Amino acid sequence: MRAVSVEDIKPGMILARSLVNDDMVVVLSEDTVLTKAHLTRLNMLKVQVVYIKDEFELSQNYQTAAAVFHRSNAFTKEYKAVVKTVQSIFEEAADSDTIPLDKTESVVAESLAPMAQNSGAVDYLYELNHHAEDVYNHSLRVSIMSGVIAKWMHFDPEQISEIILAGFLHDIGKTKLPTRLVNKTVESLQGEDFETYIKHTMDGHKILNTLKALPEGVKLTTMQHHERMNGTGFPFGCLGGEIHEYARIVAVADVYDNITTERVGQVKKTPFDAITFLTENLYTILDPTVCVPFLTHIKDAFLGSRVTLSTGESGIIASFPNDFAARPIVSTPGDNLINLNERPDILIMEYNPK
Q1: 316 lies in which domain range?
Q2: Based on the domain organization, do 13 and 85 belong to the same domain?
Q3: Three-class secondary structure of residue 244 per DSSP
């Protein structure tokens, strides 16, 4: 990548880093192809310099090498291939009030379960698609992450497959939502829009309840993935013991994905913001028996990854404190160690899997 003055930007250049304002709100996302309208916006915001992809990154040789040698190539290829199938399943649900069960179970067994078993799944998901907020990509990411969590919790293979299926179908009820609400976050809605939005949980359960062969936990997950352990969730305000175990797992995967998916106009987040949220809420709204193994294993997955700090420094995730601290210790050039739990003024702005 290279830094370019806004005065020298030409339409067609591609952002190499997301652009955020002083409040850390995303103005333009990484990989945006810049247009004249974007340039006008940058000038109005008085942005002076942005990072764009250089000639080498855009060259055919680089693209070919990346395709051959990138460590997540096989995962990426499989993921992109299955997105179209996911879309067709959701479109069938929208048209017929049911799902093609054989096709859905085949996707889980042949594609999603193997991806969830991949040791690099956490990094691959973030690296691949953390800008895609549509329901198809969200459902795919939540299903794979749910399978990863189930693996970390030592469920047996049959239960892991059911949990992946539950994650895959958790938002199937959104096929009945008005288009303008489908990709909204629940926190951004109020009034009539909120009341309409929460119905997707009941609509999803209604769709799946027609299929006798589906496990009850999969059906309940569509209805309960927004329920919270302390009774503050929806649609029924269930308490911990009333929420199915699969729904508790998918809830954590869903929260993690919603936080780490970048949306223009919202505060930029990284996996470490998700870790902080889960750490702060594991004994209130979320299930600690899910959160503790998730947090323990996901922190191990981040070791050695590259990060860019709000100070402008780059570094490597060296470790996490031995206690249950949410933020890592970062090693910067010169072997300097920064414990971010002791430096709340320093934020992680970019996370780049190793």
Answers
A1: 304-352
A2: no
A3: coil
Same domain, yes or no, for 98 and 220?
A: yes
Please say which residue of 64, 86, 115 terminates a domain: 64
Q: Given pLDDT bands bounded at 50, 70 and 90, which one contains residue 354?
A: low
User: Of 282, 299, 316, at which residue does a domain stop?
Assistant: 299
Tokens 């479109």 -> residue: 91
Residues 219 and 203 in one domain: yes
Distance between CA 30 and CA 207 in Å, rounded? Answer: 37
Q: Considering its fold, how many domains does the chain have in total?
A: 3
Torsion angle (degrees, nearest 10) of CA 38, 44, 49, 52: -10
* Cβ 28 vs Cβ 38: under 8 Å: yes
* 248 neighbors 292 (Cβ within 8 angstroms): no
β-strands 329-332, 314-319: how paired? antiparallel
**Mean predicted lDDT score pLDDT of the chain:** 88
pLDDT tens-digit readout, 185-240: 888 899 999 999 999 999 999 999 999 999 999 999 999 999 999 999 999 999 99
The 10s digit of each residue's pLDDT in 110-120 is 999 999 998 78
Calculate the CA 1 to chain-centre distance: 25
CA distance 108 to 144: 9
- Nearest-angstrom CA–CA distance, 60 and 73: 16
Nearest in space to 145 (alpha carbons), one of 324, 329, 274, 241: 274
Q: CB 203: neighbour CB atoms within 10 A?
A: 19
Which pLDDT score is estimated for 36? 78
> Looking at residue 126, what is its pLDDT?
82
The residues pairing with 348 across neighbouring beta strands, listed in sequence order, are 309
